[in-house]
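Memo to structure team: turn this sequence into structure tokens by end of day. - J.P.
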Amino acid sequence: MQENNVTFLVTLSNSLFFVTSRYTQKRNRYICMDAHKR
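Reply from structure team:
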């Protein structure tokens, strides 16, 4: 049971990190496009 919990936590944090990094990349791209428009 304990090991299952750890694996689940690791998977969760990994996916969370992936999602946040993807979101940050998108946001940065939008900021860059906005700066170019000005």
